[in-house]
Each structure stands twice: as C-alpha cells, then as structure tokens.
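Input sequence (139 aa), recorded before submission:
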Amino acid sequence: MSRTLKHALPALQVMLGRRSRDCIALIFLIATVAAGATDSPDKIFDLTIARGELTAEQRVLRVNKGDTVRLRLTSDAPGEIHLHGYRLEMKLKPGVPGELVFKAYATGRYRLEWHPAGKAGKSGGHHGPPPATLEVRPR
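Predicted structure, token format:
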C-alpha cells in the first residue's frame, strides 16, 4: 500500500463509524490485491537453434493472453527468425544472442520460423514443420 494511502486510511476511519471503517479497509485490501493480480511475470524462453532446429522441449511455447513474452534466441548459423501472426522478425548472427519481447494479445497457434541466411524469402513458401509453435491460451 502506498504511503499516501497508509496516512489517509486512519483519517477516514476517524471521520466514519466502525462499519464504514471496515468497508473502507476491505475496499483498500481488494484494490491492493487486484493491482498485484494484473501484473503477470514475463514468460521467458531461452531458445537455441542448432542446425536449423530446436530441441523437442523447446518446440511448443505455451503462454496466456496478456502475458509478456521474451524469446531469447541464439543460433549456430546466420539467419532470420519470424513469428507469424505477430509480424515479428529478427536477424541472428552465429553465437550472438537476440531477443524478441512482445505482449501475447491474440489467442491461437503461431508458427515461429527460421530461415538460414541466403535462403530467406527465396522460396516464397514454407518447407516442413516450423522449429517452434507459440500457443496463446485465453485467460
């Protein structure tokens, strides 16, 4: 609770009767809990692309709508990663970490795709399964 609220509460309690004081205390408690509940911690995924692939446990990234998502990426080869549906992309250099940070605003399943340098955009299509899928579930 903020310092201002801590000082204001006793003054309000003196001015009002016992029942009103209990209601005010309950309102402050609910407001404090609700304010903390809206802040969800970041969902952090450390992803390593080796030979164009991720390990099996990194292939499905599950978050809830409204979460802040941090994809920390490294690769053993130069290329570009992009997340369909969110229109996010980033170029990576071998061994140099990169990070995509965004709010999961839309529910569904979204492809996270890797295109090695020199091959990005040449084919115009997508070959094989994506290295990972982002699943955004409703709250």
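Checked by second reader. The chain has two domains: 3-37, 43-137.
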